[in-house]
Design goal:
The chain is an all-alpha fold. 75% of the residues lie in helices and 0% in strands. Helix 5 (89-117) packs across helix 9 (181-193) and helix 7 crosses helix 8 (153-172).
Length: 198
């Protein structure tokens, strides 16, 4: 009869599981950024685990993509929380665009993988907190006279979202250089947000 599992053995097993999960998520993120169609075998190999181990933690490719996407959104949100949004709203908008663009540029292939496996409403929900951040900055800019107040804030936030994702499309098509994107996005938004001339 087998001896009962000790507490130390249980803790070691949980630690191994945590390491495996972290390795799988890291490998999946790298693989999906390199190729949104990367398969489970490629991801398992990159993570240094077998397919059985991977499936022991993530029941399907869709579940794994969801976990990678959720983790990337949380990490991105943490990064954007650190952006200085004080002072001149126009300068703050430039800083927010620069930080946001770096993240979108980094994860755009991951977003493509997410669109293939995650319901659209989940992806939209993941954008809620970042878009609230943009909305708060726009509201402050309006209150201080830096941004126009004749359009709904929700529309101005939608313009931000459209322009920043439009830049990713233009880069993918070869019509916009990576290095120019943040300046082009910021210039476009500040022109759109400028108070109309009296």
């Amino acid at each position: 009869m087998a001896a009962p599992r000790t507490r130390q053995q249980g803790q070691a097993k949980r630690a191994d599981a945590r390491r495996n999960i972290a390795a799988i998520l890291d490998a999946a993120q790298e693989a999906l950024i390199a190729d949104p169609e990367a398969n489970i075998g490629e991801i398992a190999k990159r993570a240094g685990v077998g397919r059985v181990t991977l499936y022991g933690h993530f029941a399907s490719r869709a579940e794994l993509v969801d976990a990678v996407f959720t983790r990337a959104v949380a990490a991105s949100d943490h990064t954007l929380d650190a952006v200085d949004l004080e002072g001149d709203p126009r300068a703050a908008m430039g800083r927010l665009v620069a930080a946001s663009w770096k993240l979108i540029d980094q994860f755009r292939a991951l977003l493509l993988a997410a669109h293939n496996h995650i319901p659209a409403e989940r992806i939209r929900a993941a954008h809620d907190r970042p878009m609230h951040r943009v909305g708060r900055l726009i509201e402050r800019g309006r209150a201080e006279g830096a941004f126009r107040a004749d359009l709904p804030t929700s529309w101005m936030v939608a313009v931000y979202h459209s322009v920043i994702h439009g830049a990713a499309t233009e880069i993918a098509a070869g019509r916009l250089a990576d290095d120019d994107a943040a300046d082009v996005i910021t210039s476009t938004l500040l022109a759109a947000y400028a108070p109309p001339a009296e």
